[in-house]
Write a structure and sequence with these properties.
Elements: E1 13-17, E2 20-24, H1 30-46, H2 60-75, H3 80-87, E3 89-92, E4 98-102, H4 105-113, E5 121-124, H5 130-145
Antiparallel strand pairs: 1-2, 3-4, 3-5
Length: about 180
């Protein structure tokens, strides 16, 4: 008789960023992951007409919407305390004092628009460079989506491999001449 034992994760997955830790759910059902990703794709990419293959067409508003959408998507997979920190937007006054805290960029912007007699600026409570958001996205897709080279099934190019990352190409390590076999030795 064959027997297979499958273990479910019970401890949260942890992403360490400096002194902060973001805790992700130990297990996420496939349909929950796909639903969260589909919502992100529809609400951010499709609604804004964003074509990630044409980065020259992005506007600052598109980029802000993408960053906000990524945070919302990732927060759906986090434990509540981490999600609250990750999506919190603080509105600061000219003196740097926090005038209010909100769980969405839209709510913070509405608050700023309603300020009378003073100015305010929305800022993510947990400020992160875009490259870090992308790194967390890649981690989550690999963790819950079945691998780094797989895209969620709702992606129009689900069967295509991911495009090459930008930046300089690395140099391959070549064997040294000393380790190369030479006839007659």
């Amino acid at each position: 008789m064959a027997r297979k034992q499958i273990t479910l994760n019970t401890e949260p997955h942890v992403v360490e960023i400096g002194a902060d830790e973001l805790l992700f759910q130990p297990e996420v059902m496939g349909d929950e992951f796909v639903e969260a990703f589909t919502d992100f794709r529809e609400a951010v990419l499709v609604a804004n007409g964003v074509d990630l293959d044409d980065m020259d067409s992005l506007t600052p508003e598109n980029l802000r919407s993408i960053a906000s959408g990524m945070r919302t998507f990732l927060a759906r997979l986090m434990l509540p305390e981490s999600a609250e920190l990750f999506t919190r937007v603080d509105v600061t006054g000219a003196d740097g004092e926090v005038l209010g805290s909100f769980q969405s960029w839209a709510d913070a912007t509405a608050f700023v628009d309603g300020l009378s007699g003073q100015t305010g600026k929305p800022r993510w409570a947990m400020r992160l460079p875009d490259r870090v958001l992308v790194e967390i996205m890649e981690f989550v897709v690999e963790l819950y989506g079945g691998g780094a080279d797989q895209r969620p099934p709702t992606s129009p190019s689900a069967s295509a491999s991911g495009s090459r990352k930008g930046g300089r190409r690395g140099t391959a390590v070549l064997p040294s001449k000393a380790s190369t076999r030479t006839p007659g030795r």
